[in-house]
Structure formats: C-alpha cells, structure tokens
Specification:
Oligomer: single chain
CATH architecture: 3-Layer(aba) Sandwich
Radius of gyration: 19 Å
Structural class: alpha/beta
Number of helices: 11
Shape: globular
Number of strands: 13
Largest sheet: 9 strands, mixed
Distance between the termini: 30 Å
C-alpha cells in the first residue's frame, strides 16, 4: 500500500469507529418527475438500531442490511449518489453502506434510460438529465413526510462515479461546452473515451445532442459538498477557472482507461479553485469504484469486477472510504 494511504488510514481508524453504528437500514422508494416524464427509483440507506440482519441476495460482496428498518429519531446529514453509465442505484452500495455506518443517510437513484436493465441509447449522452434528477430527488425527498424529519437539510452532499462524477460537479456549478464536447468526441483521444463497454461507440449519438435543450446552469446550492469518483466528460470542459465553488473532492484511478485522469479528473481539478485531487495507487482502473463481485460475477463480468493481480479491491475501497469520510467530516459540518 502507498505509504501516504497507510498513514491516513491508520490515523483515522479511531475517528471512524467512534461514529459508527452496528446496523444499516435499507429500502426502495420511487418518485416521478412528471415535467420530464422520468421515474426516479431510489434506494435509501440509513443508521438503525434494528437487529433483524439478513445477508443480501445480490451477487456482490456487501455487508448485510435490514430491509425497511425503523429510523432512529434524529437528523442526519444526507448524501446523494449518482451511478455511472449503464450502472444502477446499487452500483455504489458498498460506499452507501459505509457512509450509513458512519452516521449519514444516503440516497441513490436510477438514472432513467441509462441503467443496466433499462438502456435507451439517447439517454447515454443526455448528460444534463442526471443533475436534474438529483435536484428533483432532493426536492421530493425533503417534502416527503415519511423521511424529512430525519434529514438535516443544511448538510446535504453529493457524490458520483464516472458520468455520475460529472453529475456531482455539475451540481457544484461546472458547465460543459456542448459544442466543444462534440468536436473533441471526434478526435482520436476523444473517440476512445466515448467507446464504453455498456453500449459501445457513443460518438454518433454525441453529435446529435440538442445543445439548445441544455440549461444554462445545473448548479444546486442545496448541495454543500461535491465528491467525484473518476469523473467523465472532461473533454467538454473549457479552461475557465472556477474560484467561488463549494468544497470539491475528486478521486481518480491511476490507470483509468475509460475516463483517463489527465483529460478528466486532473482537468476538472485544475479549473476548480480549492479542489482536492487524490490519485489511487498504480494499476487501479476505472471500475475499481464499483462493488466487489462474488467469484461468479468476477468471472461473468470481468471487465467490471476483476482488477489487476496487484490490486485488492476491498483494500482500495477502504482507502476511498477513509478519504471521503474524512473530507465530509471537515466540510459538511
């Protein structure tokens, strides 16, 4: 393990243990954004004192949760997770559970048309729909009497992976140049970045993006902290500097071939004043941020769930969680 990671991990163990709870509740809810005709299927994770723990039936290596558990009568900071292209609301369940154990309530929506079991090609490139999903979700959740009494509405953060990483940064105020993105998608490097395992070559779809449909800004000031994991779409980023931004943490994988850090994570960090960029160890790839798969899933979907032989995904997840929870403790107060 990198020496810096080792020191950080050991120095924060006692801090995390103090705030952890034993069990995590989980449930599924759904809203409908009628203005855009988009269903928002959402997973919630939260601390609970219930004890009826059951192992997950999912093909992931995850700590057990308690379905439809009761809430503890207190207010929690809220984190909203955005999955990557072709993923779903459970793609970052490992991180959601870890956050819940450390005293956060977590929401993770499916981005309609861009999920594992519901692929609509057009919605793989309508990147602006995702920040709108999260803004709608927050509005709906804060008005929902089943849950709003448990939320500290002054302590809301967002984080996401890949296209979800862009989503988190768009909500902070980052704006892409749609026409620049189209042009760069036709370059040699850009073309490589828009060939994705989930749907193949997206460049033709990108050239048909209706740029006039994109809102001028997608910023949502209700989100106080923004964390991007291997953010994508850096090829649409202008060189302008963003100085007055909320806290931003960007974590990139050293050997990411899908969203290379030079044209994505580092590029975002360079234009966002005050942002923090963390690079994971050598041989970590784009999909290191996803759940650990069981042996069968590692074999059947090796692109997503098998890493370089030198990499222990569980250990890397511990490093990522350590960095994130420390950042939230310092900036979501």
């Amino acid at each position: 393990m990198n020496r810096t990671w080792t020191i950080l991990l050991l120095s924060l163990i006692s801090f995390f243990c103090q705030g952890q709870v034993s069990n995590v509740g989980e449930q599924t809810i759904s809203y409908i954004d009628h203005a855009r005709e988009r269903p928002i299927m959402t997973q919630i994770w939260y601390p609970t004192t219930d004890q009826d723990v059951k192992e997950t039936a999912l093909p992931f290596v995850l700590p057990p949760t308690i379905q439809n558990a009761t809430f503890i009568n207190k207010k929690y900071p809220l984190i909203v997770l955005s999955h990557g292209t072709g993923g779903n609301r459970l793609s970052l369940a490992w991180l959601a559970i870890e956050l819940a154990k450390n005293g956060y309530m977590v929401l993770a929506p499916d981005h309609w048309g861009n999920t594992l079991d519901h692929k609509i090609p057009e919605y793989f490139v309508r990147y602006w729909e995702r920040p709108l999903d999260l803004s709608f979700l927050i509005s709906s959740f804060l008005q929902d009497e089943r849950f709003n009494s448990y939320v500290d509405s002054n302590r809301i953060g967002t984080m996401g992976f890949s296209l979800g990483g862009y989503t988190a940064l768009a909500l902070a105020g980052i704006q892409l140049d749609c026409e620049l993105l189209k042009r760069n998608a036709l370059s040699e490097q850009g073309h490589k970045e828009f060939i994705v395992p989930e749907l193949g070559d997206l460049t033709a779809l990108l050239t048909r993006i209706p740029c006039t449909e994109i809102p001028t800004t997608l910023k949502d000031s209700r989100f106080k902290v923004h964390i991007a994991l291997a953010p994508a779409l850096g090829l649409g980023l202008l060189e302008q500097k963003y100085q007055k931004m909320p806290p931003v943490l960007i974590i990139g994988a050293h050997d990411d071939q899908i969203a290379p850090i030079e044209t994505n994570g580092i590029r975002y960090s360079n234009v966002i004043g005050g942002s923090k960029f963390v690079k994971l160890p050598r041989n970590t790839g784009h999909y290191i941020f996803l759940n650990e798969g069981n042996p069968q899933l590692q074999k059947e979907a090796s692109t997503y769930y098998q890493d370089d032989r030198s990499i222990d995904r569980k250990l890397i997840h511990q490093q990522i969680a350590t960095e994130i929870i420390h950042y939230l403790a310092n900036h979501l107060r």
